[in-house]
Amino acid sequence: MAKAKTSLTAVERRAEELDTIAAVLPMERRDELAELLTDQDIETLRHLVNQGMGDNTLRALTSDLAYLEAWGLAATGRSLPWPAPEALLLKFVAHHLWDPQRRETDPDHGMPAAIDQNLRGQGFLKSVGPHAPATVRRRLANWSTLSKWRRFDGAFASPALKLAIRLAVRAAPRQRLRKSAKAVTGEVLAKLLATCATDSLRDLRDRAILMVAFASGGRRRSEIAGLRVEQLTLEPPIPVENGAPLPSLAIHLGRTKTTTGEQDDVVYLTGRPVEALNAWMTAAKIDSGSVFRGIGRWGTVSRRALDPQSVNAVLKQRAAMAGLEPSAFSAHGLRSGYLTEAANRGIPLPEAMEQSRHRSVQQASSYYNHATRRSGKAARLLT
């Protein structure tokens, strides 16, 4: 009994320590994280918070650390060793990158069924089949990063590991899929906004979320969920020939996925998105703190910010209300949709990237290529 009490106390203590860094962690799984993560894991995360690591990066590290700990327990019966031996890293690759055709004749190929069921039962595995190579590489990279923060090197640069990954990727090629199957272009956005036609708090909020996320360059759901009034700056109205000036607003993004702490990325809203945002904030009486908040059953506006997953849920719910297939869209579709719409309207790529804040021309141009290849001149040389 004493041993069980000590274990419970340790879990409760880790849960309380996680509360101290709740602002940058996926706290909807706090209790689960407290069970999975070790004291050393928690201390590493606290150190990274104190070092000023970006919120999104820290969330990704925490999510991958939780997965790695869950996989390690399922695969070896114990918490991850630090540093990780080469054999364990090779086992991780073998469990996650495998050939589905060979699996049909060799049930021991790939991740063992018992480990698969264990991780699936905990909610760590959802899709069927091998992992995407990019996911495996990211988790190994984060594993290496966490090892270095603990002052260990590990075997992440070993030739055997690099060769294993190359051979595994070659043996089980996968087509890279977009994060959102369909882009939320201007046409799709209009259908979503049509479902927000009333002056109810929920319609005003969702309309503002959709318009701000799209018009500000396709902001990530974490950026929309974490948006605060203090990030908004009123700008001089934009003159319009033969019309009333358009309201303008600056959004100071601060540290983002692609910037450092010293940079302050700024994007701008003009016209209808500003009006939609002002309408929501006025109706909800928001003058400080989080901009987008939950709304209770009786119309009570929460003081807490929406979590990023709720932004995704809003988009899917509005897609269903618009008669669209919810599974075909996600919050990332607003980001890809912004660039796709910019391409459709002939906006130069550099100008669109100034608003989307993409750093990679290759990544941003892929949306342009997708939007214009079929009808472009290169595809019509013999017409």
UniProtKB/TrEMBL annotation:
Keywords for the protein's UniProt record, in alphabetical order: Chromosome partition, DNA integration, DNA recombination, DNA-binding, Plasmid
PROSITE patterns: TYR_RECOMBINASE (PS51898)
Keyword DNA-binding: yes
Pfam families (UniProt xref): Phage_integrase
Region (Disordered): 353-383
Domain of life assignment: Bacteria
GO terms for biological process, alphabetical: chromosome segregation; DNA integration; DNA recombination
Residue ranges occupied by any Tyr recombinase domain in the UniProt entry: 179-381
Record keyword Cell inner membrane present: no
Family annotation (InterPro entries): DNA_brk_join_enz, Integrase-like_cat_sf, Integrase_catalytic, Integrase_recombinase_N, Tyrosine_recombinase_XerCD
One term of GO molecular function: DNA binding
Protein name: Site-specific recombinase XerD
